[in-house]
TrEMBL record:
Domain VOC residue range list: 1-120
Coiled-coil region(s): none
Signal peptide: none
Superkingdom: Bacteria
The name this protein goes by in its record: Glyoxalase
Entries under Gene3D superfamilies matching the protein: 3.30.720.110, 3.30.720.120
InterPro entries according to UniProt: Glyas_Bleomycin-R_OHBP_Dase, Glyas_Fos-R_dOase_dom, Glyoxalase/dOase/EhpR, VOC_core
Organism this protein belongs to: Streptomyces variegatus
């Protein structure tokens, strides 16, 4: 039986990525090694940042993950998150828009992985 789901984001520098995600999420890692760092997102959900160093993956390997952060609140909360990230220098790929499932915006981490922010279903 599965006890949790770990979403893994491939990064070139796990400690640098952990600082980036820690700032965005407002939390500290729950587990750290030099190449693999996780954040406990709540019961049954973790975010893992993995450099691939243990399997000799080169930094030249494209990083193309996308994670979705579902936030509570309504459009005002999502727009406030967008404004905060934008003012903090987070790379914004697409401003808030209706994507058919609701309001969302798209950002990128320093490795080019996509971070979608959407309203909690």
């Amino acid at each position: 039986m599965t006890t949790s789901v770990v979403s893994i984001v491939y990064v070139n520098d796990a400690p640098a990525a952990a600082r980036f995600y820690g700032d965005l999420l407002g939390m500290s890692p729950s587990f750290e090694t030099s190449g693999y760092i996780t954040f406990d997102l709540g019961p049954g959900a973790d975010l893992g940042l993995w450099s691939g160093q243990f399997e000799d993956l080169s930094p030249d390997v494209p990083r193309t993950s996308e994670v979705c952060l579902a936030i509570d609140g309504g459009p005002d909360e999502l727009n406030a998150t967008f404004e905060q990230w934008n003012s903090n220098g987070v790379t914004i790929l697409r401003e808030p828009h209706d994507a058919g499932f609701g309001l969302t915006f798209l950002a990128a981490d320093p490795d080019g992985n996509r971070i979608r922010v959407a309203l909690q279903g």
